[in-house]
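Most newcomers find our protein records easier to grasp once they have seen one. A record pairs a protein's sequence with a compact description of its fold. An example says more than a description, so a record of this kind follows:
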Amino acid sequence: FEAELKRVQQYAVDVTLDPDTAHPYLILSDNGKQVHVDQEENDLPDNPKRFSEFPIVLGKQSFSSGRFYFEVQVKSKTLWMLGVVRESVNRNEEFTVEWTPKKGYWCVFKGDENLCVALKDPPVRVSFQSYPEKLGVFVDYEEGLVSFHDVEDATRIYSFTGCSFTEKLYPFFCPGVNDDGKISPLIICPVMGDGDN
């Protein structure tokens, strides 16, 4: 798996968060690389791109061909959801486990200490050798592949295969609610690809 991780890391792209899509409870860092849930709703201008019902933000960068890869630090977080979504997803919908590829979501959802699922119909349980500190997300648009990697262990934890992409895809981030009042952000990390990260 280490060779596979090195191969997908070649397709690393620079992803930043798009404030126009951020739910009003989310706080984004100035450099667009970190997001966490605030205790209070922020007063933000109306925007048709904004998620209104669930704490989600998308990447600014969209992809409609080729391969791309990015890494996100999830260390010290118990709740999060990561992946990619198609441009036309409903941004005014409460979260359900039906946020599946059929609805334009290719995501892994971490719900509590022992539960992590790939959002398929029905959901597929994902198991870790140890809790990942950093998750890599790789997409091959033409191949119809979305895979999730534990960067430290160099293991693939789940793959959506045989996907049919017809629209722009956007990186998708949900930092979940605050864990016991602690505010741990999701952090988009630079991809080292040299085994030292």
